[in-house]
């Protein structure tokens, strides 16, 4: 049975609940009954405490009437919801909240003064969550553990180390606590100021930090611009910094992982003296232990009169130096020596040297390679130059007699001479040529003994330029620079190639001189592509690819008749080089009635499926031309019957 008692302005309205068996239904909205004397409390089931106005998620309470009236428990109802609930079917007095937030508990009891009516009384409770508090533990100093409470739920927190006392903690503040002997756990408890029953604790185990050991650098080896280090066993509980000496003190150049005993420092300061610093992981860094510094050895090798001369740097603290050649031990010299001459060399042979210092640790120099030199200068190489399909110049150098070994130095001669590269490769790709005449290249060859040739005769690939001969780009003017091959006195013939977008050849024709007019442009190419082929004395060289974009052409009718006779029934976009665009039709009210993005989309005059309405419509066309520039055109079209 449910009873509701409500008051309206200037009077009391009794809402009577009717009986149908044991079920009752409310036919009017309920509201708290004023001055009713109703009362109930929420009692925590576990502790028998009055919880006041705060409930805990997952913690059971019991509602107990405190009005002092003799009530029939079977006629006392409790409803729960975000506001006063008017449907009373539940006489259960136990309640376990499941979600945080505000809950309104409404009590409906029988009215002893007016039988057949009820008294409505509600209380608002705040439901609080009580999750395990979040915190972090860090053992970063010997004998201490750092605890940081990161939880955002509770009003106050307490930290307990093992079985020690609970100490109040502040959120987001890192505090170091001494570790009692044998304790290995941290417990953090969170509480609310107004709801102490809504509390929870979380426990984490930790491992105390072992005592630090002095680190050691066992070996240092230079590899190009990097340095490889080998250390004694590192302790994973600590952090390590690799430092290099400077004018005043040391500066850190890298953090070294403690999980490995080897480390490579890229782009290392060379020469340099290094040490390894051990610190704890606490921000304050209470522990600091360093190794003895170990210095690099910088080695140079030169060949003079058939002898290889070695020189290296020294910090003066080494007992001896071992010199290796091509990976084999060559000599052992005093720690005070800084140079060595190797006379047992063969001209034209390359030797690779290293110097290793022995002391409290080993330091191995960079590799220094040198080729024993002697003999006259070789002839200049034969050089070829040709553009590839990416407008890069491919250079091919052939030393006299196809000599093996040695190196070729390639140079570009445009507005000024630029050395591109010295390499043992017989080919080189100039990825950034200047597409302006004259563009020429030379090469010189250094043989295995270090003797260098004169520069080769300059070779100049063709530079091709293409420009539209008229506004509609129905013809193209082509000009080019003359080709110069390695045999400058030999005649040159030219062939003009017209290319497709994928660089396949569409057409070819022979041309003479340095200019021509092309009036036979391919029909369906929005960008016309050309390449010139030069032939001389069995050599073929290609120019750069020159392009000319062609303008978009749009042809739109002024009217169409969507009457279903099969003639001129739709409006379609026609023109040249139309692939992707925006075509919009707007009626006289400014409303968009059609939008198309490719030539297959047409307008039959209908708007939202309705028959065409005769009249004048505005259209707007917008696209990008082959060069990416906007092309915009507007017009009108008449819809006729």
Automatic annotation (TrEMBL):
Entry keywords, A to Z: Signal
Gene3D superfamilies attached to this UniProt entry: Immunoglobulins
Organism from which the protein derives: Hymenobacter jejuensis
Name assigned to this protein: Gliding motility-associated C-terminal domain-containing protein
Family matches, as Pfam families: CHU_C
Signal peptide: 1-28
Record carries keyword Transit peptide: no
């Amino acid at each position: 049975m449910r009873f509701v008692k409500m008051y309206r302005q200037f009077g009391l309205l009794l809402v009577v609940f009717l009986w149908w068996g044991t079920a009752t239904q409310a036919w009017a909205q309920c509201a708290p009954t004023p001055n009713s004397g109703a009362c109930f409390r929420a009692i925590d089931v576990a502790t028998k405490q009055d919880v006041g106005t705060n409930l805990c998620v997952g913690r059971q309470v019991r509602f107990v009437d405190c009005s002092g009236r003799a009530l029939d428990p079977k006629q006392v109802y409790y409803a729960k919801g975000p506001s006063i609930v008017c449907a009373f079917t539940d006489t259960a007095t136990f309640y376990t909240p499941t979600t945080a937030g505000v809950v309104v508990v409404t009590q409906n009891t029988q009215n002893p003064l007016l039988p057949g009516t009820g008294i409505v009384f509600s209380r608002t409770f705040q439901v609080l969550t009580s999750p395990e508090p979040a915190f972090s533990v860090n053992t970063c100093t010997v004998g201490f553990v750092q605890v940081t409470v990161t939880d955002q739920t509770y009003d106050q927190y307490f930290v307990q180390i093992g079985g020690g006392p609970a100490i109040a903690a502040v959120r987001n503040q890192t505090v170091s606590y001494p570790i009692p002997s044998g304790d290995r756990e941290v417990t953090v408890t969170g509480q609310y100021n107004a709801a102490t029953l809504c509390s929870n604790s979380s426990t984490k185990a930790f491992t105390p930090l072992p005592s630090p050991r002095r680190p050691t650098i066992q070996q240092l080896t230079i590899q190009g611009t990097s340095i490889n280090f080998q250390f004694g066993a590192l302790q994973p509980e600590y952090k390590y910094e690799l430092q290099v000496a400077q004018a005043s003190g040391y500066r850190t150049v890298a953090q070294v992982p403690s999980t490995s005993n080897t480390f490579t420092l890229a782009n290392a300061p060379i020469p340099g003296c290094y040490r390894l610093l051990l610190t704890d992981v606490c921000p304050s860094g209470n522990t600091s232990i360093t190794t003895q510094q170990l210095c690099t050895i910088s080695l140079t090798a030169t060949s003079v009169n058939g002898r290889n001369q070695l020189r290296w740097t020294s910090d003066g603290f080494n007992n001896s130096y071992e010199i290796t050649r091509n990976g084999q031990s060559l000599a052992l010299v005093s720690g005070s020596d800084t140079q060595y001459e190797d006379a047992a060399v063969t001209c034209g042979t390359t030797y690779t040297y290293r110097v290793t210092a022995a002391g409290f640790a080993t330091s191995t120099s960079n590799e220094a390679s040198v080729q024993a030199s002697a003999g006259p200068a070789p002839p200049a190489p034969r050089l070829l130059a040709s553009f590839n399909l990416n407008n890069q110049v491919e250079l091919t150098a052939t030393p006299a007699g196809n000599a093996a070994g040695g190196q070729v130095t390639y140079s570009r001669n445009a507005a000024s001479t630029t050395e591109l590269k010295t390499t043992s490769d017989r080919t080189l790709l100039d990825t950034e040529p200047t597409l302006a005449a004259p563009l020429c290249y030379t090469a010189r060859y250094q043989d295995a003994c270090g003797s260098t040739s004169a520069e080769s005769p300059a070779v100049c690939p063709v530079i091709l330029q293409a420009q539209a001969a008229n506004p509609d780009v129905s013809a193209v003017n082509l000009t080019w620079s003359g080709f110069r091959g390695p045999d400058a006195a030999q005649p040159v013939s030219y062939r003009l190639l017209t290319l497709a977008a994928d660089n396949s050849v569409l057409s070819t024709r022979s041309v003479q001189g340095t200019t021509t007019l092309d009036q036979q442009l391919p029909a369906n190419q929005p960008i016309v592509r050309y390449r010139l082929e030069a032939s001389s004395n069995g050599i073929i060289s290609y120019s750069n690819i020159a392009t000319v974009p062609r303008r978009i052409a749009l042809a739109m009718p002024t009217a169409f008749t969507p009457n279903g006779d099969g003639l001129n029934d739709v409006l379609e976009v026609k023109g040249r080089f139309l692939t992707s665009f925006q075509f919009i039709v707007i009626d006289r009210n400014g409303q968009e009635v059609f939008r198309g993005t490719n030539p297959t989309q047409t307008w039959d005059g209908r708007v939202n499926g309705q028959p065409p309405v005769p009249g004048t419509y505005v259209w707007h066309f917008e696209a990008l031309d082959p060069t990416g520039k906007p092309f915009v055109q507007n017009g009108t079209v008449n819809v006729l019957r």
